[in-house]
Amino acid sequence: METNVTARPIEAAPAGTPAALEVIGVRKDYESFSALRDVHLRVNPGEMLCFLGPSGCGKTTLLRIIAGLETQTAGRIMQNGKDVSWLPPDQRDYGIVFQSYALFPNLTISDNIGYGLVNSRARRMEIKSRVEELLRLVGLPTSGQKYPSQLSGGQQQRVALARALATRPGLLLLDEPLSALDALERVRLRGEIRRLQKQVGITTIMVTHDQEEALSMADRIVVMNHGVIEQVGTPLEVYEQPATPFVADFVGKVNVLQSVALGNRRFRVGDLELECDACSNGFAPGEPVNLYLRPEDRAVEHLTDSTANRLEALVTRVEFLGGLCIAEVTAKQLRGQTLGLHFSLNQLHDLDIREGNTIDIALRANRIRAFARAPQA
Predict the structure, then answer these.
(1) What's the rounded Cα separation, in Å, for the pair 330 and 328?
(2) Which of 28, 98, 126, 194 is most exposed, with the fewest beta carbons within 10 Å of its own?
């Protein structure tokens, strides 16, 4: 029987490479609940890590503890081998960008970017040179004498990013930096932030509840839920190999089929017997199991009588989304359970996929994931 993973130990560092950041056994308790419970995490130098999870999962609390804006109840924060667990924010080596931009409205863009350098008593020419360099880096070379109110939301967030980088910090923290922008600007700016992060080579931690942001920007994703880490992995690992039912449900779209284990990686769904090459062989025959299948994990071409997990499905609904469509299908063998499957617009036409028609499909045996079904309350 497979069990949920609630936390991962700190990953072993490559030989001779110190961690840029280590979170060791961090806990955060409030009067009525624990926001974080025994969190362990290692952040590698130069990587971009995304904390992903629903509201209230603890991701922002963890970021604020790393920044020194909140104090942990227990545990340690190590940055480049130095214990910063109890240091105030101004003694920690990071820059931070908030979703609200937090620019000074009465200062020019140049003065906003150079604010931290002025406070560190850098020389005037050094400040001027660094500000000009950053304005070019974020694509605003001629905006230095403007004020924040004269810029769009996306441009203001670029300025906030430049300000966070001005003092050349060892760590960049991004607290949902794109959530206040419209959809098109979010897509544009996430690509720019990722390009800039790789160009500068700065270790970066970003908090987001947007799956698409995390999948498209991160080197690794930390999926959090109820104050614990459910899984740490690359975007592909988290999407294709979810470690827990929560990760499978939360990251991307997924179909969940109720089944009963038959042994030898076979499961019965209604009257249909499914092979599951990627599933654990540890389920006892008769054990209730949920099978998880992504909408794209089906085959419709080159099917033969020997193709595993093949069935004739009835299309009950089609949702048109442009170049990609979702067809809701069912089959007599499934006994009322339905599947949402992705098809391209070309496949929609070529296979005549429309409500009331039947199509031949096969569920990919190497893509199905299985988790023990939780007892009904």
Answers:
(1) 7
(2) 126
Q: How far apart are CA 126 and CA 116, in angstroms?
A: 12
- By the 8 A CB rule, do 96 and 170 touch? no
Cα distances (Å, whole numbers) of residue 271 to 260, 293, 365: 11, 18, 17
Please give the C-alpha separations between residue 336 and each of 174, 266, 294, 332, 333, in angstroms, as whole numbers.
Answer: 45, 20, 19, 7, 8
Residues 138 and 151: their CA atoms lie apart, in Å, by 13
DSSP assignment, residue 332?
A: G
pLDDT tens-digit map of 315-346: 999 999 999 999 999 999 999 999 999 999 99
DSSP 166-184: TT--SEEEEESTTTTS-HH
CB 287 within 8 A of CB 300: no
Token look-up 């299948």 returns 293
Strand 171-175 and strand 95-98: the pairing is parallel
For the question of whether the overall pTM of this predicted structure is more than 0.85, the answer is yes
Identify each DSSP E strand in the chain by its residue range: 21-29, 34-43, 48-52, 74-79, 82-83, 95-98, 171-175, 203-208, 220-225, 228-233, 255-263, 266-269, 272-275, 288-293, 298-299, 310-320, 324-330, 338-344, 358-363, 369-372
Q: Which is nearest to 51 in space by CA: 225, 248, 237, 244?
A: 225
Residues 297/361, Cβ–Cβ less than 8 Å: no
The Cα–Cα gap between 53 and 226 comes to 9
Burial (Cβ within 10 Å: 0-12, 13-18, ≥19) of residue 6: middle
- Which pair of tokens denotes residue 290? 């949920």
pLDDT > 80? residue 374: no
